[in-house]
Amino acid sequence: MFIFGSPTYGGNPSGLVNSYIENLNLPQNVTVGVFTVGSVSTQDSNLVLQQSLQNKTVTVKMSKKFDQSAVQNNYTTYINEIIA
Predict the structure, then answer these.
(1) Residue 30 confidence (pLDDT)
(2) Origin, by domain of life (predicted)?
(3) 71 Ramachandran zone, left/alpha/beta (phi>0; psi -120 to 50)
């Protein structure tokens, strides 16, 4: 299992994180979670991260956008939902 997260800038995930994901060699059939954190919770910047993973043989089990008010419990719940 891999979990990728990124802050957002102008509604997009960090270019560095996105580039890292695009160039990463993941094992086949691995489960992945993606999340982004930004000031506007309605932006779906996770879609950009998911598109970076499209050409890989992975399953994105959960995608979540957190706003800046997210607290530790939000992240813990997210991880527990991926593991379940």
Answers:
(1) 85
(2) Archaea
(3) beta
Model confidence over 29-56: pLDDT tens digits?
Answer: 888 888 888 876 656 788 888 888 877 7
* CATH number of the domain to which 11 belongs: 3.40.50.360
Residue that wins the pLDDT comparison between 55 and 25: 25
CA–CA dist 19, 78 (Å, integer): 24
pTM of the model: 0.77
- The radius of gyration of the chain from alpha carbons, rounded to an integer in Å, stands at 12
- What length does the chain have? 84
Number of domain units in the chain = 1
Q: How far apart are CA 53 and CA 22, in angstroms?
A: 7
